[in-house]
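[job 4471] stage=fold_predict status=RUNNING
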Amino acid sequence: MKERIQGVVAGVLIGALCTGGAVFAKHMTENIEVTYDNIKVYKDNVLCELKDSNGSVIEPFIYNGTTYMPVRGTANLAGMDVTWDGATQSVYLWDEQSFGEVFLTDVCPPYETDWCGTSTSFKMSGETYGNGIECWGDDSVSLFNLNGKYSQLECVIGHIEYDNLEKSVTFIVDGHTVKTFVLEPESLPQKINIPLNNGLQLKIVGDANATSVSSLGIGNIIVK
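[job 4471] inference complete, writing structure tokens
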């Protein structure tokens, strides 16, 4: 049984990567009857659970003699990362070891901004940062179309040049506020992590309390 199930895991991955043609050409809704039979999945003799992006367990099922397994859970067992492109209805599988650093401003430049802009280089507390955003006014806004491709964002936030005013930055994914960070006057830059949960839209709102000599920096923005 163990060898059979492990073979199914490999078969699902190979089929997902290599099958083409009519399977991907269908655009329809079809009611089918499937069988749930407490199918177990083992990796290296260890019983595993297949989970979706929210951490919920998804059980494999049988349809017309074929065992079907969730793409994300199955790929994760094989050491791969999964991204979903809602615009093209496409699933992408990535080797996690070669994913590397991907800067938000390179892959998803903002499609709308207000009182802010992308920047390749700026200083915060004497250190140089890039691949980020400068916010110059109260309630400055940057909007990004993520297309559901990313699960996490990392960046460094801080005061640019004169830092005698309190500032804040809020990260909003698909209309829901994820986190708000407050920068106290004269505080040093801080590295932060934001869960994106494969959302479609990212909205960054910066409150720079801006004067002609004060602004907020969001630098080295990396998405995964």
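[job 4471] summary: Residues 2-97 form one domain.
[job 4471] exit 0
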